[in-house]
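Narrative summary of target 7.
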Amino acid sequence: MSSGFSRGKNGGVIAEFEAAEVSLLRSLVSMMLGLVSPGQTSDDPLERALGIGDSVVPSDPVLARLFPSAYQDEKEAAEFRRYTEATLRDGKRADAQTVHDTARSGRAELTAEQAQAWLRAFNDLRLTLGTKLDVTEEIHDEIAMMSEDDPRYPAYVTYDWLTYLQDSLVRALW
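Modeled conformation, tokenized:
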């Protein structure tokens, strides 16, 4: 499918994608933008200005995976979440939007900052898909033994493709 990423100039990265890959990437990051709604803050103007939000653990397993508790102690975890989750949500949305806005078919150069946003977005996409698919370490064996007629096959292959792209991007950056 794609040739992925290669090292560019001044810390940037060259991205090469076919039109169908760009369409798939944009679809995936659009899903992420819909999933990770803007961070909720309180009605208090100071708390809103500081990005202080809700302390409730998400009930959706995907959101719980994207925004895990930072502490085992529930009170400490809630307090940490209250001060960080709204900003984390905004960052994940910004990364997904960067991918959406900069994904091009053919050859395109990403700045170092854009490449880092792509890397974070790939991580979020893989966490999302991995949670939905209940991915284990045996995923490659599962894909190899799975029939292409299996309804899960496209999602597993997409997860594998995202893994390849993330690896390709990491190699191009370092």
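The longest helix spans residues 74-102.
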